[in-house]
Amino acid sequence: MPVDTKAVGKEWGPTEYTVGLEKIREYANAVGEKSPVHQDSAAAKEAGFRDVVAPPMFCVVYSSPAVAPVLFDPEVGINFATMLHGGQEFVWGDPVCAGDVVSTKVVCKEIFQKDDKGFYVFESISTNQDGQEVCRGTWTNIVRGVE
Amino acid sequence: MALEDLKAGDSLPELKTTPDKYLPHRYAGASGDFNPIHIDAEFAKQVGLPSNILHGLWMMAQVARAHTEAADGDPRALKRLSVQFRGMGFPEQELVVSSTITDSSSGTVTCETVAVQGDNEVIRNAEAELASGQA
Q1: Which residue of A23, A32, A37 is in closest CB contact with B65?
Q2: Cβ-nearest to A57 among B26, B64, B82
Protein backbone atom coordinates (compact mmCIF):
# COMPACT_ATOMS: atom_id res chain seq x y z
CA MET A 1 0.00 0.00 0.00
CA PRO A 2 1.43 3.44 -0.81
CA VAL A 3 1.97 5.81 2.12
CA ASP A 4 -1.02 7.79 3.29
CA THR A 5 -0.18 11.46 3.79
CA LYS A 6 -3.40 12.65 5.44
CA ALA A 7 -1.71 13.08 8.86
CA VAL A 8 0.69 15.78 7.55
CA GLY A 9 0.03 18.92 9.60
CA LYS A 10 -1.69 17.08 12.43
CA GLU A 11 -0.72 18.21 15.93
CA TRP A 12 -0.64 16.33 19.21
CA GLY A 13 -0.30 17.48 22.81
CA PRO A 14 0.95 19.35 24.69
CA THR A 15 2.07 16.61 27.06
CA GLU A 16 3.56 17.68 30.41
CA TYR A 17 6.63 16.13 32.01
CA THR A 18 7.92 17.06 35.48
CA VAL A 19 11.70 16.69 35.67
CA GLY A 20 12.84 14.76 38.76
CA LEU A 21 16.30 14.96 40.30
CA GLU A 22 16.76 11.19 40.56
CA LYS A 23 15.62 10.72 36.95
CA ILE A 24 18.38 13.09 35.79
CA ARG A 25 20.94 11.15 37.88
CA GLU A 26 19.66 7.80 36.55
CA TYR A 27 19.81 9.04 32.95
CA ALA A 28 23.27 10.63 33.38
CA ASN A 29 24.60 7.35 34.83
CA ALA A 30 23.11 5.28 31.99
CA VAL A 31 24.78 7.40 29.30
CA GLY A 32 28.09 7.93 31.14
CA GLU A 33 27.75 11.68 31.80
CA LYS A 34 30.12 12.20 34.71
CA SER A 35 30.02 15.95 35.29
CA PRO A 36 28.89 16.81 38.86
CA VAL A 37 26.38 19.35 37.44
CA HIS A 38 24.20 16.30 36.55
CA GLN A 39 24.45 14.85 40.08
CA ASP A 40 24.91 17.49 42.69
CA SER A 41 22.76 20.52 43.39
CA ALA A 42 25.58 22.63 44.86
CA ALA A 43 27.88 21.92 41.89
CA ALA A 44 25.08 22.78 39.46
CA LYS A 45 24.28 26.08 41.23
CA GLU A 46 27.99 26.94 41.35
CA ALA A 47 28.02 26.53 37.53
CA GLY A 48 25.05 28.89 37.18
CA PHE A 49 22.11 26.46 36.93
CA ARG A 50 18.90 26.67 38.99
CA ASP A 51 19.45 23.09 40.19
CA VAL A 52 20.87 19.78 38.95
CA VAL A 53 20.87 20.11 35.15
CA ALA A 54 19.93 17.43 32.64
CA PRO A 55 22.41 16.33 29.95
CA PRO A 56 21.25 17.61 26.52
CA MET A 57 20.08 14.17 25.34
CA PHE A 58 17.74 13.94 28.38
CA CYS A 59 15.36 15.62 25.91
CA VAL A 60 14.55 12.06 24.85
CA VAL A 61 13.11 11.41 28.31
CA TYR A 62 10.82 14.44 28.50
CA SER A 63 9.72 14.42 24.86
CA SER A 64 9.16 10.67 24.37
CA PRO A 65 5.84 10.61 26.27
CA ALA A 66 4.62 13.12 23.66
CA VAL A 67 6.22 11.45 20.62
CA ALA A 68 5.60 7.75 21.33
CA PRO A 69 1.77 7.81 21.03
CA VAL A 70 2.05 9.61 17.69
CA LEU A 71 3.83 6.60 16.19
CA PHE A 72 0.80 4.46 17.09
CA ASP A 73 -1.84 6.94 15.86
CA PRO A 74 -3.96 5.01 13.33
CA GLU A 75 -4.30 8.19 11.26
CA VAL A 76 -0.50 8.18 10.79
CA GLY A 77 -0.63 4.49 9.94
CA ILE A 78 2.94 3.42 10.70
CA ASN A 79 3.61 -0.31 10.53
CA PHE A 80 5.59 -0.48 13.76
CA ALA A 81 7.00 -3.94 13.01
CA THR A 82 9.02 -2.66 10.05
CA MET A 83 9.85 0.81 11.41
CA LEU A 84 13.44 2.02 11.84
CA HIS A 85 14.63 5.18 13.53
CA GLY A 86 16.39 6.70 10.53
CA GLY A 87 17.54 10.09 11.75
CA GLN A 88 17.30 12.51 14.60
CA GLU A 89 18.02 16.15 15.17
CA PHE A 90 17.80 18.19 18.36
CA VAL A 91 18.25 21.94 18.74
CA TRP A 92 18.61 23.03 22.35
CA GLY A 93 17.53 26.24 24.05
CA ASP A 94 17.37 26.89 27.80
CA PRO A 95 18.88 24.16 30.01
CA VAL A 96 16.45 21.79 31.75
CA CYS A 97 16.87 21.42 35.51
CA ALA A 98 15.36 19.31 38.29
CA GLY A 99 11.92 20.66 39.16
CA ASP A 100 11.19 22.06 35.71
CA VAL A 101 7.85 21.28 34.05
CA VAL A 102 8.35 20.69 30.32
CA SER A 103 5.45 20.76 27.85
CA THR A 104 5.92 19.08 24.49
CA LYS A 105 3.76 19.29 21.43
CA VAL A 106 4.30 17.28 18.27
CA VAL A 107 3.44 18.02 14.66
CA CYS A 108 3.67 15.76 11.62
CA LYS A 109 5.90 17.66 9.19
CA GLU A 110 6.22 15.28 6.26
CA ILE A 111 5.18 11.87 4.99
CA PHE A 112 6.65 10.67 1.72
CA GLN A 113 7.73 7.59 -0.13
CA LYS A 114 11.06 6.76 -1.75
CA ASP A 115 11.22 3.39 -3.51
CA ASP A 116 9.71 0.89 -1.08
CA LYS A 117 10.36 3.02 1.99
CA GLY A 118 7.94 5.35 3.74
CA PHE A 119 9.44 8.38 5.52
CA TYR A 120 7.57 9.89 8.47
CA VAL A 121 8.99 13.14 9.85
CA PHE A 122 7.75 14.63 13.14
CA GLU A 123 8.77 17.75 15.00
CA SER A 124 8.59 18.01 18.78
CA ILE A 125 8.70 21.41 20.45
CA SER A 126 9.38 21.46 24.19
CA THR A 127 9.00 24.52 26.39
CA ASN A 128 9.56 25.01 30.12
CA GLN A 129 7.27 26.47 32.80
CA ASP A 130 8.43 29.99 31.84
CA GLY A 131 7.45 29.50 28.21
CA GLN A 132 11.09 29.28 27.07
CA GLU A 133 11.90 26.76 24.35
CA VAL A 134 14.21 24.06 25.73
CA CYS A 135 14.40 21.68 22.77
CA ARG A 136 13.15 21.22 19.25
CA GLY A 137 13.42 17.69 17.86
CA THR A 138 13.08 16.37 14.32
CA TRP A 139 12.33 12.64 14.33
CA THR A 140 12.65 10.71 11.06
CA ASN A 141 11.19 7.22 11.03
CA ILE A 142 11.53 4.90 8.05
CA VAL A 143 9.05 2.13 7.35
CA ARG A 144 10.27 -0.60 5.04
CA GLY A 145 8.17 -2.58 2.64
CA VAL A 146 5.61 -0.06 1.43
CA GLU A 147 4.75 -0.78 -2.20
CA MET B 1 39.73 22.80 25.97
CA ALA B 2 38.71 26.30 24.91
CA LEU B 3 36.16 26.28 22.11
CA GLU B 4 37.55 29.56 20.78
CA ASP B 5 40.85 27.85 19.99
CA LEU B 6 39.32 25.19 17.74
CA LYS B 7 39.67 25.68 14.00
CA ALA B 8 38.58 23.85 10.87
CA GLY B 9 40.46 20.58 10.45
CA ASP B 10 41.08 20.07 14.19
CA SER B 11 39.76 16.93 15.83
CA LEU B 12 37.99 16.64 19.17
CA PRO B 13 39.36 14.02 21.58
CA GLU B 14 37.96 10.60 20.62
CA LEU B 15 35.35 9.19 22.95
CA LYS B 16 35.70 5.43 23.54
CA THR B 17 33.23 3.43 25.58
CA THR B 18 32.29 -0.23 25.77
CA PRO B 19 28.66 -0.81 26.78
CA ASP B 20 28.48 -3.84 29.05
CA LYS B 21 25.99 -6.68 28.55
CA TYR B 22 23.34 -5.07 30.79
CA LEU B 23 23.75 -1.45 29.61
CA PRO B 24 20.69 -1.67 27.33
CA HIS B 25 18.61 -2.67 30.37
CA ARG B 26 19.81 0.31 32.38
CA TYR B 27 19.24 2.65 29.43
CA ALA B 28 15.77 1.16 28.91
CA GLY B 29 14.93 2.03 32.52
CA ALA B 30 16.46 5.50 32.27
CA SER B 31 14.81 6.36 28.95
CA GLY B 32 11.56 4.39 29.13
CA ASP B 33 12.29 2.59 25.83
CA PHE B 34 11.71 -1.09 26.58
CA ASN B 35 11.50 -2.28 22.96
CA PRO B 36 12.49 -5.97 23.33
CA ILE B 37 14.91 -5.79 20.38
CA HIS B 38 17.21 -3.88 22.76
CA ILE B 39 16.94 -6.04 25.87
CA ASP B 40 15.97 -9.56 24.81
CA ALA B 41 18.51 -11.41 22.65
CA GLU B 42 16.10 -14.28 21.93
CA PHE B 43 13.35 -11.95 20.79
CA ALA B 44 15.84 -10.03 18.64
CA LYS B 45 16.93 -13.26 16.93
CA GLN B 46 13.31 -14.22 16.31
CA VAL B 47 12.83 -11.01 14.32
CA GLY B 48 15.98 -11.60 12.28
CA LEU B 49 18.62 -9.60 14.16
CA PRO B 50 21.99 -11.13 15.11
CA SER B 51 21.35 -10.32 18.80
CA ASN B 52 19.84 -7.56 20.90
CA ILE B 53 21.00 -4.18 19.59
CA LEU B 54 21.93 -0.92 21.30
CA HIS B 55 19.35 1.87 21.47
CA GLY B 56 20.09 4.37 18.69
CA LEU B 57 19.41 7.25 21.07
CA TRP B 58 21.95 5.85 23.58
CA MET B 59 24.54 5.90 20.79
CA MET B 60 23.46 9.46 19.93
CA ALA B 61 23.95 10.33 23.62
CA GLN B 62 27.57 9.13 23.31
CA VAL B 63 27.99 11.40 20.29
CA ALA B 64 26.52 14.27 22.32
CA ARG B 65 28.88 13.48 25.24
CA ALA B 66 31.93 13.54 22.96
CA HIS B 67 31.04 17.16 22.22
CA THR B 68 30.09 18.36 25.71
CA GLU B 69 33.24 16.77 27.15
CA ALA B 70 35.25 18.74 24.60
CA ALA B 71 33.58 21.84 26.08
CA ASP B 72 34.68 20.98 29.64
CA GLY B 73 31.44 19.12 30.37
CA ASP B 74 29.20 22.18 29.95
CA PRO B 75 25.81 20.92 28.70
CA ARG B 76 24.96 24.45 27.46
CA ALA B 77 27.73 24.25 24.87
CA LEU B 78 25.87 21.79 22.64
CA LYS B 79 23.40 23.81 20.58
CA ARG B 80 22.42 21.35 17.88
CA LEU B 81 23.06 17.73 16.97
CA SER B 82 21.74 15.79 14.01
CA VAL B 83 22.54 12.16 13.23
CA GLN B 84 21.66 9.42 10.79
CA PHE B 85 21.34 5.92 12.23
CA ARG B 86 22.81 3.32 9.91
CA GLY B 87 24.48 0.13 11.16
CA MET B 88 23.24 -1.67 14.26
CA GLY B 89 25.26 -1.27 17.46
CA PHE B 90 25.89 -4.15 19.85
CA PRO B 91 26.66 -4.47 23.58
CA GLU B 92 30.15 -5.61 24.62
CA GLN B 93 31.83 -3.96 21.63
CA GLU B 94 33.80 -0.75 21.89
CA LEU B 95 32.10 2.33 20.44
CA VAL B 96 34.42 5.06 19.16
CA VAL B 97 33.15 8.58 18.44
CA SER B 98 35.38 10.76 16.23
CA SER B 99 34.67 14.38 15.45
CA THR B 100 36.36 16.87 13.15
CA ILE B 101 35.79 20.62 13.07
CA THR B 102 34.46 21.80 9.71
CA ASP B 103 33.89 25.47 10.55
CA SER B 104 34.64 27.75 13.47
CA SER B 105 33.69 31.17 12.16
CA SER B 106 31.01 33.40 13.71
CA GLY B 107 31.32 32.05 17.25
CA THR B 108 29.89 28.61 16.50
CA VAL B 109 32.02 25.48 16.09
CA THR B 110 30.54 23.01 13.60
CA CYS B 111 31.71 19.39 13.72
CA GLU B 112 31.31 16.39 11.47
CA THR B 113 31.11 13.22 13.50
CA VAL B 114 30.96 9.44 13.11
CA ALA B 115 30.50 6.62 15.61
CA VAL B 116 31.88 3.17 14.83
CA GLN B 117 32.20 -0.28 16.34
CA GLY B 118 35.20 -1.79 14.55
CA ASP B 119 34.52 -1.09 10.87
CA ASN B 120 30.75 -0.98 11.47
CA GLU B 121 29.65 2.66 11.11
CA VAL B 122 26.65 2.95 13.43
CA ILE B 123 26.15 6.71 13.20
CA ARG B 124 27.25 8.69 10.21
CA ASN B 125 26.80 12.17 8.80
CA ALA B 126 26.40 13.50 12.30
CA GLU B 127 26.71 17.26 12.58
CA ALA B 128 27.09 19.15 15.83
CA GLU B 129 27.16 22.84 16.68
CA LEU B 130 28.99 24.02 19.77
CA ALA B 131 29.13 27.48 21.22
CA SER B 132 30.38 28.92 24.45
CA GLY B 133 27.86 27.79 27.06
CA GLN B 134 27.18 30.88 29.13
CA ALA B 135 23.92 32.41 27.95
Answers
A1: A32
A2: B64
Distance CA A86, CA A57 (A): 17
As averages over each run of 10 residues, the pLDDT of chain A (147 residues) reads 90 97 98 96 97 98 95 91 90 98 98 94 98 98 86
Q: Which chain B residues are within 8 Å of A30, Cβ to Cβ? A: 23, 26-27, 29-31, 58
Could A88 and B82 be called an inter-chain contact, meaning their C-beta atoms sit closer than 8 Å? yes
Span between the terminal Cα atoms of chain B, in Å? 19
Cα distance from A31 to chain B (closest Cα, Å)? 6
CB-based contact B98:B54 (threshold 8 Å): no
Residue B25 within any structural domain of the chain: no
Domain span at residue B123 reads 3-20+54-131
Query: ipTM score of the complex?
Result: 0.94
**What digits encode the pLDDT tens for the residues A22-62?**
999 999 999 999 999 999 999 999 999 999 999 999 999 99
Q: Which residue of B has its CA nearest to A48?
A: B134
As a whole number of angstroms, the distance between CA B46 and CA A56 comes to 34
CATH of residue B12: 3.10.129.10
Which runs of E-coded beta strand occur in chain A? 11-18, 83-92, 101-114, 117-127, 133-144
Superfamily of domain A11-19+54-144, CATH level 4: Hotdog Thioesterase (3.10.129.10)
Min Cα separation A5/chain B (Å): 23
Structurally, chain B folds into a number of domains equal to 1
